């Protein structure tokens, strides 16, 4: 009984520790994932730069909303124009019907006119779970000092209707503008919306 209690306590502590890792205003969790070409990409590679992370799944209607209306691409282009790095991450399990192989997902992004700095294939879901990514899309911004300064939704209207995009506040664009201007992030954390990440 004592041993079981100890194991339960250790497990709860480990879960709490993982959750505590992902806090806005704290150093961002480590990230090391192979890209679509099989090369290892690490968040540490981009020290001194702003990094935007986007969890993506083309099978999700919410992702299609933002890509179909060119909203995600516009947000991405604005970020890259500011000198930021954009990492698109797939944590979709290979067993899921939504899974796309690296070449397929790269081709889809290219077909949409997207130009991420890297496409990361987190097939085992290790990075997604470590970061607490819940939905596609789920957005994060890490500042040049390596601190997580934004986590949550891409915008303020949680729907799959492209007509809502012009009426919504784009939280990512807003946060990047404030970060560039040296201002506090007015909405550092929001509730992400979309399809649940299809973890293995």
Automatic annotation (TrEMBL):
Gene3D superfamilies: Glutaredoxin
Keyword Transport: no
Keyword Metal-binding: no
Domain Thioredoxin, residue spans: 22-177
Record's signal peptide: 1-20
InterPro entries: AhpC/TSA, PRX-like1, Thioredoxin-like_sf, Thioredoxin_domain
Swiss-Prot/TrEMBL keywords: Signal
Domain of life of the source: Bacteria
Coiled coil spans: none
Gene Ontology molecular function: any one: antioxidant activity
Protein name as it appears in the record: Redoxin domain-containing protein
Originating species: Inhella proteolytica
């Amino acid at each position: 009984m004592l041993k079981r209690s100890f194991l339960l306590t250790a497990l709860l502590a480990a879960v709490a520790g993982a959750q505590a890792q992902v806090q806005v205003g704290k150093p961002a969790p480590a990230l090391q994932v192979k890209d679509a070409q099989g090369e290892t990409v690490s968040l540490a590679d981009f020290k001194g730069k702003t990094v935007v992370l986007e969890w993506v799944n083309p099978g999700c209607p919410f992702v299609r909303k933002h890509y179909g209306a060119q909203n995600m691409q516009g947000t991405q282009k604005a970020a890259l124009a500011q000198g930021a790095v954009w990492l698109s991450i797939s944590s979709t399990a290979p067993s899921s019907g939504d899974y796309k192989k690296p070449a397929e997902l790269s081709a889809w992004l290219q077909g949409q006119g997207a130009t991420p700095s890297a496409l990361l294939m987190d097939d085992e879901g290790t990075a997604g779970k470590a970061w607490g990514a819940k939905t596609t899309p789920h957005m994060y911004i890490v500042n040049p000092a390596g601190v997580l300064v934004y986590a949550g939704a891409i915008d303020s209207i949680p729907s799959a209707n492209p007509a809502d995009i012009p009426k919504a506040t784009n939280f990512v664009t807003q946060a990047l503008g404030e970060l560039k201007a040296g201002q506090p992030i007015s909405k550092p954390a929001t509730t992400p919306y979309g399809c649940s990440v299809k973890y293995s």
